[in-house]
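== Polypeptide entry ==
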Amino acid sequence: MLKIVRIFDRTLDILMLVACGIFTCAMLLVCADVVLRYWFNRPLGWSIEICEFILVGMVSFGMAWLLREEGHVKVDFLLNRFRLRSQAFISGVTSMLGSVCVLVVTFYGFKETFRLMETGAVESGQLNIEKFYLLIPLGIGFFLFFLELIRRSYRQLKASKELRENIIRGK
């Protein structure tokens, strides 16, 4: 089991590096487009379209890693009023509820991806890219996000149980 967890963590790390790399590509592409547009009056008409794809991929590949690092925005002014045991329990339950929601989105996302693959629907724009290519990173990212939410829920509920047992033992 530990090996699977290490592989999963390594996958998240690699996808974060991919997200950083494609973000850098988007930044360079926008800079090149600005230079070509204003200095040479020759804009790259397809750059915005590519950047849209890049942004979807960047967010999709980075969200599970960000959750693992506890980097998501939290509104914890209410949660901080509870004891540590209650905080861990509430975090575990909300992560479990979140994982159910993300699983539903993942399921329907994959379903829509396969439907678009069959129909061959094309994204409007200069490049005429099939729409399902845009959804593949979303499906991968949401599935990994689901797995990380499950793992987070397990950790939080386990911490809540350990804190409760320590209170019972008088530690």
